[in-house]
Amino acid sequence: MSQFAINLLFVGASFALYIGIAIWARAGSTKDFYVAGGGVHPVTNGMATAADWMSAASFISMAGLLASGGYANSTFLMGWTGGYVILAMLLAPYLRKFGKFTVPDFIGDRFYSTSARLVAVICLVVASVTYVIGQMTGAGVAFSRFLEVPNTAGIWIAAAIVFLYAVFGGMKGITYTQVAQYIVLIIAYTIPAVFIAMQLTGNPIPMFGMFSTHTDSGLPLLTKLDEVVNALGFRDYTADVDNKLNMVLFTLSLMVGTAGLPHVIIRFFTVPRVADARWSAGWALVFIALLYLTAPAVGSMARLNLMTTVYPEMAGQVDDYEEAASNALPYEERPGWVRTWEETGLITFDDKNDDGRIQFYNDSADFSDRGWEGNELTVNNDILVLANPEIANLPGWVIGLIAAGGIAAALSTAAGLLLAISSAISHDLIKNTINPNITEKGEMLAARISMAGAILVATYLGLNPPGFAAQTVALAFGIAGGSLFPALMMGIFSKRVNNKGAVAGMLAGLGTTLLYIFTYLGWLFIPGTNMLPNSPDNWLLGISPLSFGAVGAMINFAVAFAVSNATEEPPQEIQDLVESVRFPKGAGTAVDH
Questions:
Q1: Looking at residue 347, what DSSP letter applies?
Q2: Which of 22, 397, 551, 552 could lock 509 by a disulfide, CB 3.0 to 4.6 Å apart?
Q3: What span, in angstroms and rounded, lies between the C-alpha atoms of 131 and 350?
Q4: Is residue 278 within 8 Å of residue 579, measured between CB atoms?
């Protein structure tokens, strides 16, 4: 059986499973559509939350970032994991106690303001649409390689599959589909990692293999990797971060962004009791850890495999790295996986010195004495996890499995994000603002139409993304952290913040964050335009646009408290409501809905 047929079998079987589950668990009411009926078991919800949380950025792009940037990019791991802990401890049980369907629902009622609800809808839509671009980008990468279709066609296929099971299944269908997707993606991620760890170190546990001895050279794997990348002009894989301020702000931005992501928060509305929300969070952390503990090993091993593929003499014991680097692989002898990925356009080769060999090195290094005239191989970060089984010559079924896993990761999060957008528009904008008398049938129709519209918008933007998957996702985290997270925290833990302060804070946080992003990443939504070059030389105090969400959150908090203290206190019933939410006793809700 050909590799294409194997890939098609695995991917097709997973699609059939997802659509079958969605038909079986299709939503029959608005409560089914928004919160899966409110009766999901904590373990089931924990697994679905993990799938919702571990997007294409986690599955496809995070290990690629670690592979290309080394230790410096571990901020992604620290920020996302730390943020989930904040979400689990400081937000999930209290929001579940409140008993509403959506994040704007909480903000609108807590700050007793239609304006606050509308601003929250805007913040949610902007953050979620930005996030879903990364999922569509990741899905396009996976489809283009494994189903041998153009990247554009891959994104449209992903959109069609999400439409089939998300629009009709709602949260109920998405929940059980995400359970299946988690099982697919975690098996797909760990099995290739075990194979590769065994090949390179003889240790079957990837996270331990990363600190084990590299079999061919006899050196510790990370030491071997440092020597290889150094010989090609790159900084040590294990080198520390230069800009500590940017590192701290970026980690903090990912943390507050994580805690403010609406598609994860709404998962805690699907369980029966407050205690179940806590248990769901705990189980989700366990399920997430299975992938996050493996990702650093996958990244380091992918980088070493990639380098030694291009420079085969560097694979074993090396006495003279300069000589080994001079004997780069002839382009005509490139392995099959390079040829395959070249067809997708995600690997490109430009023979700048016409020597017929592949020079893959740091362009800023001066290797003119070797006759090199510039780096000749461009490798998209998003392909490394997907290509790893092929680089390591693993069996065809492993490649098919990781194809299904990568697509499952992208689709699971995309569905959750689209549901968050749909719920905000149909429930908060239409039901609670424009037409309070709309029937349940009309609200369901509005929810499905808004989700279909969101899919079309996300697909269009996915065709013109501002960067690879994890970059785009990081922007979404910054937007959510700068706008929604402070409002949620103040809504739960401060009785003094009023509606005027909340609205002013959210607008200030969202506005400053978007202004900074547009200033340095002008092509975020308008491909091809740039107000200023995206260069650290132009960044304010060296703060990356990806890190500015933390600053936006600080501005949000400051403005909200300043405006609230300059205006009247919230009504007493709202202060009593906050008090009841802060002490989530039992299974009840703080307010009726």
A1: E
A2: 552
A3: 33
A4: no
